[in-house]
Fold this protein.
Amino acid sequence: MFTEVLVALVIGGLIFFMVQRSRTQVLKTEDGWWGAGAPADGGEDATIRPFKVTSSDEELEDLYRRIDQTRPVPSLEDSQFNYGFNSHYLQKVVSYWRNDFDWRRQVDKLNRYPHFKTNIEGIDIHYLHVKPKKVPEGSTAIPLIMVHGWPGSFYEFYGLIPLLTDPSDPQDLVFEVVCPSIPGYGFSEAPHKKGFDSVCAAHVFHKLMKRLGFQEFYAHGGDWGWLVTTNMAQLEPGIVKGLHVNFAPPSKPGLSMALSIMLGRRFPKMFGFTDMDIQRLYPRMEKLVVEPIKESGYMHIQATKPDTVGRGLNDSPVGLAAYILEKFSTWTSHDFRNLEDGGLTRKFSLDDLLTNVMIYWTSGCIVSSMRFYKENFGKGLDQPHSKMPVYVPTGFACFPDELMHTPKLWVEQKYHKLLTFTPMARGGHFAAMEEPQLMAEDIQNFTKTVEKK
């Protein structure tokens, strides 16, 4: 009897230790140096410098010359967007870009919000910092960092920002928004050394928020922004007050996920599966294997040899536009592959789409943005952050046309304090840009839940 009790106490103690250990576990990282050469003497320059997006006649003349020299390739008959960006429709987009798109007007739009740069770990970090014009008496603005992905940019949030910093409903919370460009994207300097992955970006963005004087803040992200903000929550859970994401592919599939895939169609209630879950997951071979293969070719290239194809895209504006805009078609809705125009302007304007392309073109960042895949996947799929739960309060916006569907059960495997899980009425992968009102409402609802307001 004594032996059994002793064994039970030991096992119980081990279980208690493991539970406590997992609850207090945080992601570890170290300061890096991503600038060219060796770190300069004298320490880091913490100066914050105002920045403006600019253009020039020479820049536009070079762009137009390259567009004029493009060599069109006819699309196959009845191919729509199933072979990639339809060449016939591409010519229409290029014609608009060359003759009607007003980049200077879009530059003025980009400069509507305050831009800044500051040097962190050897590279210049670009970011927007938008403060509310008015904060209700007796309250303070809630700091929120929002992080983009690929092939997006900080511009994805331009429709969302005013809904958060200047909400129309007096009962809504007022946010102070910071939108950085991931190093190697847009106007953030690209790392000069190998190894800059999502954890490094998260570490840099924590330094940015501390430099701006924030002791705690909320974070939002989609695409790579999901992983960067998730890593921020894992690195310093006491500082990230709440995490809101709209993309959360399983990082470490486990037994419950495997069982749900095998049995979920027959026993949906057992796994909490909704009608949308069943529709998006089954037939499982088609939805979980064939479909991802159709849409992930770019990822294999960028995770292995990004510099090769990137060099061609960096030289050709038409090639760059086709490569980027094809994602804004098929990642918004898989059904758009069967349309001659890819459904591009059903959810976005050509002006907004081309503005995002121009951010890549004028900054020359396509190669460095693609390298982010190499740096993350090149270290393997079993990195410490992939095995580590998130204990920061989390909200998930589940958009029905997201590239990869994640049921609530799967989200809870990673995010152990999932406070809100919202099936959204409509929207795809670029949800903040496509459905800013819906996104703002969900961020509001989640933050109110955390703040208990």
Residues 1-22 have pLDDT under 50 and may be disordered. The chain has 20 helices and nine strands. The two ends are 53 Å apart (CA to CA).
